[in-house]
């Protein structure tokens, strides 16, 4: 994993510090920016790498970590497949299927930080007029509403609280 030395915007520092304070000891997991590509590496410590200095990348990768069970957290990149840009229709549909919950949680994190959220289709070859994007967006919003009513998974709730506190302190 190549990590670049970059200037991190304050919200990225807030995200990284909040995560590491909350989980470095209890979960032996740290969040680290500056990577060329997001990646999860199990080990001692486990490391969640996020892209460059992008807050949204950090929040998205943490959301994946929050939904991954113990077995998946023991696998590189949680054992998920990944196909880059140029996915065919079936691969893109599979992507949408596994991304609804993480992106709904990411939306909760964005809200806590006051960062705009927009769903990611992670595929430049998808036409913005594709009706599947509207369906995916609706599914993410429905899951966001459900999580707002029923509550976040435990680790996501802890991180959401930490982000909220970080934001309140910086104001």
Strand order of the largest sheet: 1-3-2
Number of DSSP helical runs: 5
Q: How far from one another are the termini?
A: 35 Å
User: Based on DSSP secondary structure assignment, what is the total number of beta strands?
Assistant: 3
The figure for the number of domains is 2
User: Ranges with pLDDT <50 over ≥5 residues?
Assistant: none
What does this molecule look like?
This protein is mainly alpha-helical. The protein has two domains: 10-79, no CATH class; 89-170, no CATH class. It has five helices and three strands. The protein has helices at residues 10-23, 55-67, 89-113, 131-150, 154-170; strands at 29-35, 39-41, 46-51. Strands 1-3-2 form a three-stranded mixed beta sheet. Helix 1 runs parallel beside helix 2, helix 3 packs across helix 4 (131-150) and helix 3 (89-113) packs across helix 5 (154-170). It is globular, with a radius of gyration of 16 Å.
List keywords for this structure.
171 residues, 2 domains, EpmC
Short summary:
With 171 residues, the protein is mostly helical. Helix content is 52%, strand content 9%. The chain contains five helices and three strands; from the N terminus they run αβββαααα.
């Amino acid at each position: 994993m190549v990590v670049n030395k970059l200037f991190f915007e304050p919200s990225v520092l807030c995200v990284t510090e909040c995560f590491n304070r909350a989980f470095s000891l209890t979960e032996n997991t740290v969040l680290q920016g500056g990577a060329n590509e997001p990646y999860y590496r199990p080990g001692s410590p486990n490391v969640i790498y996020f892209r460059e200095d992008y807050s949204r990348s950090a929040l998205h990768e943490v959301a994946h970590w929050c939904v991954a069970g113990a077995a998946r957290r023991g696998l590189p990149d949680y054992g998920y497949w990944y196909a880059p840009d140029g996915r065919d229709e079936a691969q893109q549909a599979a992507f949408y299927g596994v991304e609804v919950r993480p992106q709904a949680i990411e939306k909760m994190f964005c809200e806590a930080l006051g960062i705009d959220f927009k769903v990611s289709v992670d595929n430049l070859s998808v036409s913005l007029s594709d009706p599947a994007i509207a369906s995916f967006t609706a599914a993410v919003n429905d899951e966001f509403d459900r999580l707002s009513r029923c509550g976040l998974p435990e680790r996501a709730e802890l991180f959401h609280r930490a982000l909220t506190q970080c934001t309140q302190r910086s104001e």
